[in-house]
Amino acid sequence: MISLGIIGTNWITKQFVDASDETKSFKLTHVYSRTEAKAQLFVDDLSKSNINISTDLEQFFGSTDFDTVYIASPNSLHFSQAKLAIEHSKNVIVEKPSASNIREFTILDQLAHQKGVFLIEAARHIQEPIFKTVQEYVETNRDQLTGATISYMKYSSKFDDFLSGNTPNVFSTNFSGGALYDLGVYTVYDAVVLFGQPEDVRYQAEFLSSGIDGSGTLTLNYNDFDVNIIVGKTKNSFLPTEIYFGKKTLLLDNGGDITKVSEAGAKKEITEIPTTKSDNPMDSESVEFARIINENDQAAYDKLFGYARKVNRILEQARMSAGLVFKADKEY
């Protein structure tokens, strides 16, 4: 198994470690956290022993007990942490989006090529078998494709804190947060993988007092159809995601975490399409990322990186169209 270091001691890092254990793809050897107590609590919660702990990033990346790092810190920290990892010749798996803007993304791309390491953006949902089912359906019926509406809105557990007068990272421009860069990145991945590169991008954002987008509507214009995306962290939505094929419609119960896929026919009859989904949605990405690294599968890596490049460019174009500026945009 590939030796793994992690940055971030939250639920998503635990889920990735659990997936790695279940699939025997990565072996956790080192944890970084700002405090030793928090890192130790995380390790204890995993019921693991002989795990090294660091509270200094230079020391962490200078260690030789892991060769791949999984980064799940706030968005604004992805660039500096991934850059430092690459400079120490570590493979990087970084939560999406991997950068705050395309300038940062390009720097990481160039540095990874120079160092000969992998830089993988962890778009886990496009690796799941249930998404592959959707992808196959779209490819089979592409000649009938007439557009899509993708919805992913979920009331954030941090929004009440924001309403009380605080500014959690996810609602701060300092940390490159907001609806588009949190939930919206899933939906943009949907569009890029299923439909390709759009011709035009426009984002209408509903701004909060912190200057961040609490929700918004993103429109992607293609040659002969449009994709309309609805994202939000300040309200709950139960709208399905729909992909249109003339008289037929493919229905997904969620734009970011698909659990059910159905087809609505010309007479509005609905037929569920058989799919499979793991209890841990990170199982598939863990297996695939480990395979790419172990087999040095450059073709598969280039395909995933191509998706990531398009997604990060679209996110920035969307922000610019809405006038949404991050602190990271002003630092260089």
TrEMBL record:
Domain Gfo/Idh/MocA-like oxidoreductase N-terminal as annotated: residue spans: 3-119
Listed Gene3D superfamilies: Dihydrodipicolinate Reductase, domain 2, NAD(P)-binding Rossmann-like Domain
Pfam family, one: GFO_IDH_MocA
PANTHER family in alphabetical order: PTHR43054, SCYLLO-INOSITOL 2-DEHYDROGENASE (NADP(+)) IOLU
Name of protein: Gfo/Idh/MocA family protein
Organism this protein belongs to: Companilactobacillus keshanensis
